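A reminder from the course coordinator: this example appears on the midterm review sheet, so study it carefully.

Given structure:
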């Protein structure tokens, strides 16, 4: 950078000087005119052959006489002498010249004809050049049109190819979507099938378990079903789901539902139940939580598979409302089980009676 600052005057001077030289060369340079001008001839006058013949020698040119005069002025003086006689050969040469055979030209090429011919040739050359330029321009235009046509065809082919690719992508996406839907349907069907198989398996296990339990002897034997008395048989009435107003018109406050039905129990103070058309497969005894006696009647809801789904202690027939006895009776009722009956209502209601007696 410091070098440029030190020599910037020299740089600018060199640049300006060369710029002036280039401008002068452009302005005053030699140019060749195009097209080139035609060559011009030189007029030569050969004169007339008859007029050219003569006996006298033409006088010398004035330039020659002037030169001779100068030579005489510069020459040193000499003694006068008699001039020599004219040579006879000069007089005799004139007739000899008249005897020479003269060459003539019948046709003379004029400058105007040559110029017209050259002009015509120049015009023809110019026409040829213009024709060549026109043909070249047409060829270039044709080439450009072909390139444009080829470009359009290429663009159309590329557009078609892209459209085909897009179409294939859409088809593949649709196939994948349908395959995914089909896969989900199959998965759902498989899940349903497995769930159905699992349900059937559980039902079969429950049925086998219930059949096994039914084959066992009743834990509490047979006895009164109404209030757990020592009678061998009693009547009771089951309540079907969803239930309603049931009972005997002639019954009292202490009577059971309906006209009575069969039930089972054990002699003594064991629990007894009332559930129409069903038999107990398990009636566990409640734990005795205190020092109080009483009877607790529990209302139960049983499904078709024999399971107790709901229990409510302290319904009609209960003579004690000790919370411990009610809770113990409810928990024992929830653990009870009955035989499975596919023809039974979805939910069937009944009662289980528990007697708490002090030892």
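Designed residues:
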């Amino acid at each position: 950078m410091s070098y440029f600052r030190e020599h910037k005057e020299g740089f600018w001077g060199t640049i300006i000087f060369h710029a002036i030289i280039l401008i002068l060369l452009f302005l005053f340079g030699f140019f060749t005119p195009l097209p080139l001008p035609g060559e011009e001839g030189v007029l030569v006058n050969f004169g007339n052959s008859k007029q050219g013949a003569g006996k006298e020698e033409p006088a010398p040119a004035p330039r020659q006489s002037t030169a001779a005069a100068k030579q005489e002025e510069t020459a040193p003086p000499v003694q006068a002498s008699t001039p020599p006689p004219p040579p006879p050969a000069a007089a005799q040469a004139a007739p000899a010249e008249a005897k020479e055979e003269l060459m003539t030209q019948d046709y003379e090429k004029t400058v105007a004809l040559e110029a017209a011919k050259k002009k015509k040739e120049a015009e023809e050359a110019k026409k040829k050049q213009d024709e060549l330029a026109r043909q070249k321009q047409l060829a270039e235009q044709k080439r450009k049109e072909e390139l444009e046509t080829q470009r359009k065809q290429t663009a159309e082919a590329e557009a078609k190819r892209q459209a085909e690719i897009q179409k294939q992508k859409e088809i593949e996406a649709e196939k994948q979507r349908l395959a995914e839907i089909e896969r989900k349907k199959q998965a759902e069907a498989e899940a349903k099938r497995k769930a159905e198989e699992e349900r059937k398996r559980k039902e079969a296990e429950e049925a086998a378990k219930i059949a096994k339990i039914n084959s066992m002897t009743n834990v509490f034997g047979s006895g009164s079903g109404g209030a757990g008395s020592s009678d061998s048989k009693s009547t009771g009435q089951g309540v079907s789901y969803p239930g309603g107003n049931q009972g005997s018109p002639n019954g009292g406050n202490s009577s059971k539902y309906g006209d009575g039905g069969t039930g089972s129990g054990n002699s003594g103070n064991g629990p007894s139940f009332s559930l129409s058309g069903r038999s107990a497969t398990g009636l566990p005894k409640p734990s005795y939580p205190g020092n109080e006696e009483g009877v607790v009647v529990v209302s139960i809801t049983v499904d078709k598979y024999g399971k107790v789904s709901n229990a409510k202690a302290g319904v009609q027939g209960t003579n004690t409302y000790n919370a411990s006895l009610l809770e113990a009776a409810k928990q024992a009722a929830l653990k009870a089980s009955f035989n499975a009956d596919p023809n039974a209502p979805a939910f069937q209601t009944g009662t289980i009676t528990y007697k708490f007696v002090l030892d």
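The radius of gyration is 75 Å. Strands lie at 239-240, 272-274, 280-282, 294-303, 308-313, 337-338, 347-356.
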